[in-house]
Design a protein that fits this description.
Layout: H1 3-103
């Protein structure tokens, strides 16, 4: 085999090794980029979900507070009605007792 052929083969092998090395480096970089992009997408999704959850909690709390306030007002109204009814019945009962005592 001639020296030129050996040199040519050697250069071709070197070029192939360089190309393989470059391809491996590029593949590693592409993999790292893809992993970083995937991680960022996951982090963004988690942050979005957390934000939405906080908003839902806030809305739920506001609705609960409004419902509790409304219930409190309704309860106060019922208490006032019951006190009024009890007061009128107390007066009726007192009159009935007085009438029975006087009638006896």
């Amino acid at each position: 085999m001639s020296f030129e052929a050996i040199t040519s083969i050697s250069q071709a092998e070197d070029a192939a090794k360089t190309a393989v090395s470059y391809a491996q480096t590029q593949a590693k970089q592409m993999l790292a980029d893809a992993e970083a992009a995937g991680k960022k997408m996951i982090d963004d999704a988690v942050k979005k979900a957390e934000t939405e959850l906080e908003e839902l909690k806030k809305q739920s709390g506001e609705k609960s507070s409004a419902a509790a306030e409304e219930l409190g007002k309704a309860t106060e109204q019922q208490k006032a009605e019951l006190r009024s009814l009890a007061g009128s019945r107390l007066e009726e009962a007192a009159n009935l007792v007085v009438e029975r005592i006087v009638s006896s």
